[in-house]
Amino acid sequence: MKNKHYLTNIYCGKVAERYGIETAIDKQPVNTSLYLSFDGLAGDECADKLHHGGLERALHQYPAEHYAYWQEKYNTDNTWQAAGMGENISSTGMTEQTVYLGDRYQWGEAIIEVSQPRSPCFKLNKRWGIDNLSVDMQDVSRSGWLYRVIQPGMVSVDEPLELIARVDNAMTITEVCETFFGDPLNNQKLLALKKQSTLSDSWMEKIVQRLANNEVENWNFRLLDHA
Questions:
Q1: What backbone phi and psi angles, to 5 degrees, belong to 73?
Q2: Which residues are paired to 103 by β-bridges?
Q3: Three-state DSSP class for residue 106
């Protein structure tokens, strides 16, 4: 288990009218030290605070190596590179298969904890001009992951993410996605996911509802911008 991972870039964005929507998905690299609060990186904005950002979605990390996959899949003239998915942190060597829910990292003065996979949304479709990118991303569990901030502090691209804690029964981000998105009404798998104490409250609520009602919440609004 590699304990230290050096980042390739940090990105922050401002809300603007782009791609026919109001979004902060276009983020620019930051090479200086900046403050990471409970809400996220200083200077990073969020257009839709109901569905993005917040205490359990303060940071988004996306593996840089996934861009080659999307380039090959769609074979478009798009420039497939970070921070095309709106990520704050870009890395190589950390993927959904090697990062676990609840993993805690020291990053500079700050401590961050993996809270959930990223839920792909229709804004990715708008950003790339590909109708079903969000659906395809969800289907193959290449959506990256989100963090909550345990301890705020100054951070920079020069300081590694150093793994300092992993819970005993931790599931990889891939395993979480394969249950939550891929087998969403499998009672046994949902019960296993329900034992993940570090899972974000919003995802935990959905698991509890599914177990009670045997119904999956409507994903169309998130994935396709219609009910």
A1: -65, -45
A2: none
A3: strand
The residue behind tokens 């304990």 is 3
pLDDT tens profile 174-189? 999 999 999 999 999 9
Give φ, ψ of 127 to 5 degrees: -60, -40
Q: Are 64 and 90 in contact (CB under 8 A)?
A: yes
pTM over 0.85: yes
Dihedral angle, C-alpha 207, 213, 215, 219, nearest 10 °: -50
CB 185 within 8 A of CB 210: yes
Give CA separation, 165 vs 106, 113, 118, 177, in Å. 9, 9, 21, 21
Phi and psi of 151, rounded to 5°? Answer: -140, 115
CA–CA dist 24, 2 (Å, integer): 32
